[in-house]
Write a structure and sequence with these properties.
Blueprint (H helix, E strand, L loop, with lengths): L1 E5 L14 H13 L3 E5 L2 E8 L2 E8 L7 H10 L4 H4 E7 L7 E6 L6 H10 L3 E8 L9 H5 L5 H23 L2 H8 L7
Parallel strand pairs: 1-4, 1-5, 5-7
Antiparallel strand pairs: 2-3, 3-4, 6-7
Helix pairs in contact: 1-6, 2-4, 6-7
């Protein structure tokens, strides 16, 4: 069984913001695969279903981004998930242009507080992540204002396409391998 985690912040004021990229991709997977909502457990919304024949848990921590690690740890422990081999975390990345994807098998938090907390709580940096580009903060802007802001109309199409590609990347990881997904989706998109 795979635990697929999308990071974001709960509440209407955060919907469709850059920082909620992980939530948005999970919502697309739920819709595409008709994954029923199982309720709330360990301060996270979750649903159980199948993607590419694999049993999955789709999860959105409700603890706010910077405290994502507790719910992820508790859910992984409860369902006996090995984070190093059976978990995928999807989140926003300001170091990638809007529309770009980057898949990694392990690594540091790279300044992302949600990932930093997950690493602290799990005690490992080895877990698959799908980073979805949201663009760098404009010069002079506060980082929080940038990541909690919404995309402009010129970026929206790129971001929606990236969310679709992130879903396809999850499918490829489950059906084939992380390496296959990295080869397919880590290429720089020409139209971005």
């Amino acid at each position: 069984m795979y635990l697929i985690v999308g990071l974001g912040n709960p509440g209407r004021q955060y919907e469709a913001t850059r920082h909620n990229m992980g939530f948005d991709v999970i919502d697309k997977l739920v819709e595409e695969y008709n994954v029923p909502q199982s309720g709330v457990k360990f301060n996270a919304m979750y649903g159980k279903g199948r993607i590419e024949g694999q049993p999955v848990i789709l999860m959105k921590p409700l603890s706010y981004m910077n405290l994502s690690g507790g719910p992820v740890r508790d859910m992984a422990n409860y369902f006996k998930i090995d984070p190093e081999t059976e978990m995928i975390v999807i989140y926003d990345d300001i170091d990638l242009e809007p529309g770009q994807l980057r898949i990694r098998k392990k690594g540091s938090a790279g300044g992302h507080n949600g990932i930093k907390h997950i690493i602290q709580q799990l005690g490992t940096q080895t877990f698959v992540r799908i980073k979805v580009g949201v663009g760098a903060k404009p010069k002079g802007w506060d980082l929080a204002d940038h990541v909690l802001g919404r995309f402009g109309s010129n970026e929206r199409k790129l971001v929606e396409e990236a969310q679709e590609r992130a879903c396809k990347a999850v499918e490829m990881i489950l059906a084939d391998s992380v390496d296959a997904a990295m080869n397919q989706f880590n290429k720089k998109m020409e139209n971005v």
